[in-house]
Structure to design on (142 residues):
């Protein structure tokens, strides 16, 4: 757990869309005030290209990101654990601030559908940052 700033872990099954978009928004909107990680219980081999495209439209670059495996170290190093629509595939971590964000899975969907998911993730990330006493920064998203 970081003493100087809050730490958030986003967990989904494939770590290829939802959690990567959420982590990208936390990084962009917190201006580095929040440490952020994302991981998957069964990570995919690459980030969903539609998620990469949708995030690029709002100035968040996910091109260099790779899906990561969920580890106990990542969980223990986080103040907040947010699972993202993965049900029983994502474990619950007692003692952590825990949220479950039910979101559509962007896997296999076109960029139009992914934009709607992206916008909902951004809204939730802004609420999360506010709850962490971090004022979300402006980005190119409208």
């Amino acid at each position: 757990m970081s003493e100087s700033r809050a730490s958030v872990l986003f967990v989904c099954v494939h770590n290829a869309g939802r959690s990567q978009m959420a982590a990208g928004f936390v990084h962009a909107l917190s201006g580095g005030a929040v440490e952020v990680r994302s991981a998957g219980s069964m990570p995919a081999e690459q980030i969903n290209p539609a998620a990469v495209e949708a995030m690029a439209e709002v100035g968040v670059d996910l091109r260099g990101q790779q899906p990561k495996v969920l580890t106990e170290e990542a969980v223990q190093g986080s103040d907040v654990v947010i699972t993202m629509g993965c049900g029983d595939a994502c474990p619950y971590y007692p003692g952590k601030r825990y949220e479950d964000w039910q979101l559509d899975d962007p896997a296999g969907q076109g960029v139009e559908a992914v934009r709607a998911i992206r916008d909902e993730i951004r809204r939730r990330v802004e609420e999360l940052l506010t709850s962490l006493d971090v004022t979300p920064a402006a980005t190119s998203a409208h």
User: Anything to note?
Assistant: The longest strand covers residues 6-12. The mean pLDDT is 88. The two ends are 33 Å apart (CA to CA). Helices lie at 18-30, 49-56, 72-76, 111-131.
